[in-house]
């Protein structure tokens, strides 16, 4: 069935509009795929579903997201699931706000569609992905998009102009449910200007896009996560046009116009943070 890249995402803008009756939160985000990626191989085999991560068999206490996605896909196409072997080579850090797990699931679904149901509309594949995770529909589509609802209502936006991104994850993770619980008790001092960002994207004005970076989760961070703001300041000092946390963190990314400046910044940060990555924006998948 072949091999696919599972691309990470960053949030150029993230706003929380409130809690929903279904237990989720209403979001409004501008999302962007970037070149940092895992490698996902999917093969039909005899026997049951198997998952191998970086050379080790995955035997979790519950069904993996990849297996749930495969089961949902074959239910949707009305056939029993054959033996499927999924192999992941991970590079996107886990629990980082970069959508690595969702990207892997999206790559599995794209592979299954290519092999078993190439005429399946993109919207149907995204619907299947939503049953596994809120970020999966965007990770199936990729590119630059406005995401609403849980993140599944997607509108394609003009692409991010050519630039470089430096992504830096500190050593800790941040529990997403903890931040969403805080979101229900807070009023935000600053919210994203998504219309302004859309205008800057239409104009291809990189400095204008960078100026509109905003993630309301940053206002919710407890004091023990202050390293996020230290990294933001470092990126600005090292020449980023602007910097922001991605998703519920803790990864921070900076946008750079110059490859040379971005490379120097990544090298400087790598001395303190091993999970530092240089990336470029990537356009929409052709599924």
Automatic annotation (TrEMBL):
Short name of any one Pfam family annotated for the protein: GHMP_kinases_N
Example of a GO biological process term: terpenoid biosynthetic process
Catalytic activity: 4-CDP-2-C-methyl-D-erythritol + ATP = 4-CDP-2-C-methyl-D-erythritol 2-phosphate + ADP + H(+)
Domain called GHMP kinase N-terminal: residue spans: 68-143
Keyword entries, A-Z: ATP-binding, Isoprene biosynthesis, Kinase, Nucleotide-binding, Plasmid, Transferase
Active site: 9, 135
HAMAP family attached to this UniProt entry: IspE
Family of the protein in this entry: Belongs to the GHMP kinase family. IspE subfamily.
Listed name of the protein: 4-diphosphocytidyl-2-C-methyl-D-erythritol kinase
Organism: Pusillibacter faecalis
């Amino acid at each position: 069935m072949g091999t696919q890249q599972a691309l990470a995402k960053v949030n150029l803008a993230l706003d929380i509009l409130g809690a929903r009756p279904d237990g989720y939160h209403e979001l409004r985000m501008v999302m962007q795929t970037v070149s940092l990626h895992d490698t996902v191989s999917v093969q039909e085999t005899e026997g049951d579903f198997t998952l191998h991560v970086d050379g080790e068999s995955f035997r979790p206490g519950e069904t993996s997201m990849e297996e749930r996605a495969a089961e949902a896909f074959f239910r949707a196409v009305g056939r029993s699931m054959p033996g499927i072997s999924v192999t992941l080579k991970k590079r996107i850090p886990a629990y980082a706000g970069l959508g690595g797990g969702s990207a892997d699931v999206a790559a599995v679904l794209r592979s299954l569609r290519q092999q078993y149901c190439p005429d399946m509309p993109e919207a149907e594949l995204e619907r299947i992905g939503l049953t596994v995770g809120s970020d999966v529909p965007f990770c199936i589509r990729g590119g630059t998009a406005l995401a609403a609802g849980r993140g599944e209502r997607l509108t394609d936006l003009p692409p991010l102009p050519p630039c470089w991104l430096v992504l830096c994850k500190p050593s800790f993770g941040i529990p997403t449910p903890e931040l969403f619980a805080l979101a229900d008790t807070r009023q935000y001092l600053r919210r994203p200007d998504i219309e302004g960002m859309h205008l800057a994207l239409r104009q291809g004005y990189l400095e204008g896009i960078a100026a509109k970076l905003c993630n309301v989760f940053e206002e919710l961070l407890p004091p023990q996560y202050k390293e996020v703001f230290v990294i933001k300041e470092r990126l600005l000092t090292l020449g980023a046009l602007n910097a922001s946390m991605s998703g519920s963190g803790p990864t921070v990314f900076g946008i750079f116009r110059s490859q040379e400046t971005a490379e120097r910044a990544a090298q400087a940060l790598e001395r303190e943070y091993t999970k530092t990555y240089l990336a470029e924006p990537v356009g929409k998948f052709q599924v």
